[in-house]
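Hi F.,

I've been meaning to write this up properly since the lab meeting, where we talked about keeping a consistent format for the predictions we share between groups. The idea is simple: the sequence comes first, exactly as it goes in, then the structure tokens exactly as they come out, then a line or two of notes. No screenshots and no reformatting. I'm using this chain as the first example so we have something concrete to point to.
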Amino acid sequence: MFNQRSSRRIFVAISITCTAIELSTFAAAQARPLPGPDVQQIYDRLLPQINKIPAFDHHAHPGFADDPDVDAMAAPPDFSEALRTRSDNPELIAAAKALFGYPYTDLSPEHAKWLVAKKAELKQKYAGTAYFDMILDKINTESSVANRAMMPDYLDAKRFPWVFFADSFMWPFNNLREAARNPDEGVYIPLQEEDAAPLDAAGESGEAAT
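Output, unedited:
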């Protein structure tokens, strides 16, 4: 006999079936990265417009190689070094080609001399703050936050807003145990202690207030 309970069971069964069909259809659609033939055309149309939008770099350590106040994380020269800072990282070659017209496909010592000479040439051509402003222009970056202990006069403060590198103040006590934990800390912590010394002296003499 068909009653209210049977009707409810049939309704639940139909609802479950419809939901299963809907989910399977949705999953099938999501399994395709390009659901329609026009998607690639949309990408191709939007990409040039997106590339025109200047970027904002929220964390950088800009500076010349001989600047002692460049505070990028130091690491021992072994496997613990970050991939992107290793000399065999292919991204470095691609960047050198894009920024400086680097003519080689490796960074061997002989070939790297070309890059050093080219940077020295551009440094003379773009004096003062013009060199790093030129770099930002080439990579279409409006501004880049400079994470440094001190700001040099060759960085344009309008395009390189300063964020103080405070790591030197995080190790105020005897750090022998911490420095011995691993090779990375063994390089990093002594550098922070070294950087803290002139800052402490400036604070004691009142120079920091000016």
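Notes:
The beta strands are 55-60, 141-148, 162-164.
The longest strand covers residues 141-148.

If this format works for you, I'll send the rest the same way.

G.
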